[in-house]
Amino acid sequence: MEIRIDGLTKSYHSEGKEIRALDRVDLTIPANRIFTLLGPSGCGKTTLLRCIVGLETPDAGEIAIGGEIVWSREKKIFVPPEKRGLGMVFQTYAIWPHMNVFNNVAYPLQNRGVAKAEIRSRVARTLQFVQMEGFENRPATKLSGGQQQRVALARALVAEPKVILFDEPLSNLDAKLREETRKELRRFLSELQITAVYVTHDRVEALALSDEIAVMREGRIVEIGAPKKIYFNADHRFVADFIGRANLIPGKVTALENGHAVIASEIGPILGRNSHGLVPGDEAMLCVRPEFMWLAGEKDKARNLFRGRVETLVFIGEAYEGEIRVGDRLLTTTITPTADLAEGDEIHISFDPDHCFLLSA
Amino acid sequence: MLKKPPLTPTLIVIVGFLTVCPVVMLVLGSFSRGFGTFGRFTVEKYVAAYTDPAFAGILVNTAIFTLGSALVATALALFLAYVNTRTNIPGKFLFGVISIIPMMIPHILFAVSWVLLLNPSNGILNRWLMEGFGLSKALFNIYSLPGMILVEGLLDLPIAYLIIAPAMRSFDVALEESSKVCGASNLRTLTRVTLPVLRPAILAAAILVVVRSLASFAVPSVIGIPGRIYVLSTHIYRVISTGFSADYGKASAIGMSALAASILLIYLYRYLTAESSRYVTISSRGFKPTLIDLKRSKYPLFAVVGLLSCVLIVLPVVVLFYTSLVPYAMVPSARAFSLMSWKNWSEVLRDPISLLALRNSVTLGLVGATLGIILSIFVAYVIVKVRTRASGILESLSFLSFSFPGIVIGVGFMWFFVRTPLYATIWALLIGYIATYLPYGIRPLSSAFVQIHSHLEESSRVCGGSPFYTMRRIIIPLLIPGIVSGWILMATMFVRELTLSVVLSRPGSEVLAVQILRFSEDGLWGKLSALGMIMIFISTSLVVIASLLGRKLTQMETVQ
Question: How far apart are CA B177 and CA B183, in angstroms?
Fold first, then answer.
């Protein structure tokens, strides 16, 4: 089911100050896709999710789920959360501690008056789907973090909702488990053909899980796009910077070269992809990610070749993280861990013009 | 869009009435000329109260009594808490018993049992010592300030322990370990690191004991009055209960200083407990402190703890039961056992006033605790979940009564009830009880509400549960443990209530503790003990039934 949001606004009052959690948000979440709301803490992503579910009442605007308006100030419509027929996984999982696994998962069916035998078989099926079969009688307090997460997912899915919402569901798991669960979640959701709205502040999670990502900042949606588009070709400097580590180098466009442009920067001319149609004379910002820089030999004739000095070099196992001083500018780079390097070395670094892009400053 | 009933203002009015009304009435009363008429205001009651030549002595007694009790209770609690949480002493279950069970034994009975043991004329222990060592005079006289301090200190030991032990448990052992790494011994670590870090908790416990002993009436009346040692509470009691004209104005004027001191101390206490939770770091990983190996001192220390639990729990019950069976005070002997009978019991059970007291107390316990807990549920909900400025006011209001000395607040309520048809009915007692003991219901319920994360409620709504369904299946079941423990606490306190009842109880609205006090004033120890045993039995049954019921209710949900 498609979710349509129009002009949604919500403010909080805290210590006499008004905080705009949502600022006229317009958004269409496509049906049967995994859609992620990504942004730093306090950007309004959780508030937006809670408005969709019905746990918060916005100040203005309209929300429609699958064509049915569930909230509208003007039309005085408010469908309470229990009538919206959604599934949700909370950040804390919200597994009811006084019930066993069966009752937790059966709950959405029990209050809808589904027959006992039917409940039993649907709970069993859902538990099997999340690989928790045989845990029916386990008390909720005797579950590990990962198991709680699966039970929460089963509970959200058991009534076969058309939309499922996730509020940072992996943030309470440790790093290794988080990675595994992320992969599983991706598999579950793509099998189900369901509209999933996923809130996170973790860019890797967003990239790994989503069909589409909406990056939010200060109550507004800055940019929407598929993971690759956002990573390789963001329209906004904030998005480019937030979705991955980036070196942002300012300069002025001096020439165009079939789909690329040259900027004059403080470290010399740089060639990059010109996907936003800049013309000579424009102020621009070049974005190049550390992982696309490589060590070049002195004799290399590559474009975008720079000479610099290794200021710091940190070995992190899978790579070296280096800061290279080129002129007055420090560039962050990722260098292969087998390189024979030391702090203070004079080196050459380079990056492909196809692997960096220009933003308008 | 979601229209909410004005819950907070309603509760502020109810709780405000319960807590502010007696205080306002007390203030008005203290400036009034006669009882029942406010009319022209005067300060003559204050002049009379505070120029009384005996008053200075009473203040000195009160200071020695309260501070002494605080010292005894805190020192013992500190010892128990340290030994329990930090050493490998055997029989740790005893500590749980010591911290809970004595609360069920009514203070007046505890005091009476010590009188029966240590009074100078026929105290059982005194008699034994006199016979054993051929002494001509009793060794101990319970009717003295040290006697009062000992008994009150033991009575307040559990409450001090319940404050100090959790602080000690959540104490970050790394602080101690780093002291040892720096080369300090166990003892030096204790005195230089552990105790200073725990200082806010220790001070808070001591202050609470001071407040409670200032409000205490059982010990000063049963032990102090026969020894002619008066403290503030018994002084007030003397002013309103003896002579031809009870002087409620003068009692109010005296009460004002006790109330002011209490409120001041409770604010200090709340500040210190906030301080102590800031001081003590609770580690999220379940760490277990390394226990100090007591080696050879293990068993002597265990003997001390065992003796203490014996003195606190077994002794009072045994002494009372024994006294209820013998015809007059006598040392246990073959003759005493041959004279034993149920005579005292059958006399008490045929005494119409005792029976009325029994019925009133049970009614007050059941009805009062139920009403009190219903009010507490709403108040705790607003304090924990609503969290507005108004709910802050409600929180302060509801904890105000924590500092009320029962007898003083009783006098305040008296000024109010005398103008209403409630005067001399058990409803007056009911209202007074709920007002005074409301914090005891609110505390377990607010901690229950704290545990109910808002997500638990919200996820039920998203899962299709209506607000009412959510209430029934999620909130109430999660609250039941809190409701049960709050109800037990209130019911047992109401069944044994003395200090407030001594003022508010009138012919027709007698209650158990007051009837026991009358028996004690008349020296009818046998009847007293029989009625006391019945009282303990009722309290214990209430506890058992309520816990079983609570367990049943929680099980229903998991079995379903």
Answer: 10
